[in-house]
Amino acid sequence: MSPKELLYVEDALGHTNQIKTVCDDFRTQLSDTELQNFVADIARRQKQTFDRFYGLL
């Protein structure tokens, strides 16, 4: 993997992890169960994306 590709993967890991963290924090502030589940699903998908990118390393 070239240094440029590695930087791209590291950047993508940071972004996906940040989105997951924001979703987890936001979910705790919601009172609507349906919205909580929706945001939890987004966080779960971001975790899957993180794991896929991490697997490239």
Sheet of most strands: none
Please, how many helices?
Answer: 2
Number of strands: 0
- How would you spell out the order of helices and strands? HH
Query: What's the average pLDDT?
Result: 92
- Give the count of structural domains: 1
| Category from helices, strands and their pairing | mainly alpha
Which range best describes the helical content: under 10%, 10-25%, 25-40%, 40-55%, 55-70% or over 70%? over 70%
Low-confidence stretches: none
How far from one another are the termini?
9 Å
Can you tag this structure with a few keywords?
57 residues, single chain, mainly alpha
What does this structure look like?
By secondary structure, this protein is mostly helical. It has one domain. 88% of the residues lie in helices and 0% in strands. The longest helix has 27 residues.
How are the secondary structure elements laid out?
Blueprint: H1 3-29, H2 33-55
Helix pairs in contact: 1-2
How would you summarize what this structure contains?
With 57 residues, the chain is mainly α.
